[in-house]
Amino acid sequence: MIDLFDSFMLGGSVQLKNRIVMAPMTRTRASEGDVPNDLMAAYYAQRASGGLLVTEATDVAPSSNGYALTPGIYTEAQRAGWRKVAEQVHRAAGTIFLQLWHVGRMAHPSLMPDGQAPLGVSDERAEATVFAHGPDGRLGHVPAGAPRALHTHEIAELVTTFAQACAHARDAGFDGVEIHGANGYLFDQFMNSVLNTRTDRYGGGSAANRTRFLMEVAEAAVRELGPGRVGVRLSPFGTFNAMPTDPLAVETLIHVAEQLGRRGVAYLHLVYELMPEGNMETAEFKASHIDHALLAEVRTKFKGAIIWCGGFNGRDSAQRALDTGLVDLIAFGRPYIANPDLAERLRHGWPLVEADPSTYYTRRGEAGYTDFPVYSTPGDDTRAA
Fold it and tell me: Rounded CA gap, 241 and 22, in Å?
């Protein structure tokens, strides 16, 4: 039987010391210019005992920015900031992938270059909120802006942009990248057969066309980084960020699994517990996961590693998932916020701390970010925070 603390060779290239993954989580701590900073480097290094860390979603271009104070990878200053992060994680014997995204319609004109409209698969507006400056100048959740549908030639240009971001990630010292194809952002918008009303070669009328953008970016990423160093995150059946229910979701998932496997993608990172509606500060998470029979079919189609994320709150739930034989790695999100030493706590059965959701996106320095201590056994005052 596979144990949560067994090592794992990812894609034949990247050695992981255990089966624990830190899921990507937006924390809005970047400095001016969307530059990663020393505080972010400390945050990731604190959590380096996990087998694989996946960073928060990172902008590949100014037009991909949908939330204030999220980092980018497209300027030299941003790359220098991320280089500090990768160095600190490697110094702590960790492995780290950079998650790359484009938010598509999930943005506001105040975050776009020259106040332009967000870019989407179509011109349909998302009835959802993004984290940006409101009319009063204060940061908070504001309605997403009305998007402009991407021209066909702009999609090809975005493929090149993602390829450049992969090169930048490699140069910054990351071990690989994860393409964010989930949770209502641009790739997910293309893959949704209801939202994607295009009639060009990226249109929603066939699985091949509506997944073409993702496949082209995945191919470019593998060419840039090599096998074993590219993963893709997906959220089948998700309605987060105002995504319409898709009657062809199963067809799309099976097609994506098969095609990504053929393109040398190292892992699929599946949002196993369905995401709730609303933003992360107010959302109510409910136990609702993807059907195991469908996941077994995905397993037969995709020959790389599979990660499940969502709803795992301890070692027992993670181990039960591994025992199904349908998954190789387990990702933890919210438990990692207040437990920097999560891997050690799971290994030893130490209690977990819960973070206050109001601290998820604060700008109070270390508060709610790097100020959570590691576990101390009674009478042990030697374990530093």
Answer: 22
CB 288 within 8 A of CB 311: no
CB 148 within 8 A of CB 123: yes
Two structure tokens written together for 290: 């993807």
Residue 196 to residue 205: CA distance in whole angstroms: 8
Contacts of 239 (CB under 8 A, 6+ apart): 245, 274, 275, 277
Tell me, what's the pLDDT at 255?
98
Look at residue 266 in the predicted model and tell me its pLDDT: 98
Contact by Cβ (8 Å): 311, 271: no
**185 an active-site residue?**
yes
Handedness of CA 70, 76, 81, 84 (dihedral sign): positive
60 in Cβ contact with 35 (< 8 Å): no
Candidates 198, 293, 199, 214; CA nearest to 255 is 214
Determine the Cα–Cα distance for residues 173 and 192; give it in Å rounded to an integer: 34
d(CA 155, CA 157): 5
CA distances from 214 to 133, 273, 337, 340 (A): 30, 22, 30, 33
How much is the pTM? 0.94
Tell me the two tokens of residue 233: 């995150």
Q: Is 94 exposed, middle or buried (0-12, 13-18, 19+ CB in 10 A)?
A: buried
Catalytic residue among 185, 202, 267, 336: 185
Q: What is the mean pLDDT of each run of 10 residues along the chain (385 residues)?
A: 96 97 95 96 98 98 94 98 98 98 96 95 95 80 95 98 98 98 97 98 98 98 96 94 96 98 97 66 64 96 96 95 97 96 97 89 83 83 45
Rounded distance between C-alpha atoms, residue 148 and residue 192, angstroms: 17
Rounded distance between C-alpha atoms, residue 289 and residue 326, angstroms: 14
Task: Report the alpha-carbon angle 327-330-331, nearest 5.
Answer: 135
- What is the C-alpha separation between 382 and 377, in angstroms, rounded? 10
Residue 1: what pLDDT? 86
Distance CA 325, CA 306 (A): 10
Q: Which two tokens stand for residue 242?
A: 């105002």
